[in-house]
């Protein structure tokens, strides 16, 4: 099991610990799916402050924790900023095509219902 080695290092599951049900749960929430869509649209990482989410700071923190603990994102500290990156390679190796299909479905739904 993966564990953090210092206060500034966050705990992430190892690739072989990522489970489909955890990924699907993480992506089932519209706020978390929005974060993942934004991350998928960039080549690098985005800081937590980049995201302007319609929830409280503590709820935002919860959403990022769910994404990290499910193995969907990788979070690292750079100075005082917490940077977020999509674990696309890990997810593609474990569940080929899943992330792309979910992102496509989310885009289609957004076009259909406005969001």
Feature tags:
49% helix; 5 helices; 3-stranded antiparallel beta sheet; alpha+beta; HTH_ArsR_DNA-bd_dom; Arc Repressor Mutant, subunit A; 115 residues; single chain
Largest sheet: 3 strands, antiparallel
Overall spatial form? globular
Radius of gyration: 14 Å
Query: What is the element string, with H for helices and E for strands?
Result: HHEHEEHH
How many beta-strand runs?
A: 3
Distance between the termini: 37 Å
Strand content: 5-15%
Task: Calculate the mean pLDDT score and round it.
Answer: 92
Computed structural class: alpha+beta
User: Looking at this structure, what is the CATH superfamily?
Assistant: Winged helix-like DNA-binding domain superfamily/Winged helix DNA-binding domain
CATH architect. name: Orthogonal Bundle
Helix content: 40-55%
* Total number of distinct structural domains: 1
Q: State the CATH topology.
A: Arc Repressor Mutant, subunit A
CATH class: Mainly Alpha
Number of helices: 5
Organism: Streptomyces noboritoensis
Keywords: DNA-binding, Transcription, Transcription regulation
InterPro entries: ArsR-like_HTH, HTH_ArsR_DNA-bd_dom, HTH_MetalResp_TranReg, WH-like_DNA-bd_sf, WH_DNA-bd_sf
Protein name: ArsR/SmtB family transcription factor
């Amino acid at each position: 099991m993966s564990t953090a080695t210092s206060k500034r290092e966050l705990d992430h599951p190892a690739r072989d610990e990522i489970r489909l049900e955890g990924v699907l749960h993480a992506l089932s929430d519209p706020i978390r799916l929005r974060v993942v869509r934004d991350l998928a649209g960039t080549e690098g990482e985005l800081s937590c402050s980049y995201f302007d989410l319609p929830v409280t700071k503590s709820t935002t923190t919860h959403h990022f924790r769910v994404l990290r603990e499910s193995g969907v994102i990788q979070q690292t500290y750079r100075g005082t900023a917490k940077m977020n990156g999509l674990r696309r390679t890990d997810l593609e190796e474990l569940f080929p095509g899943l992330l792309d299909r979910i992102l496509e479905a989310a885009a289609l739904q957004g076009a259909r219902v406005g969001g």
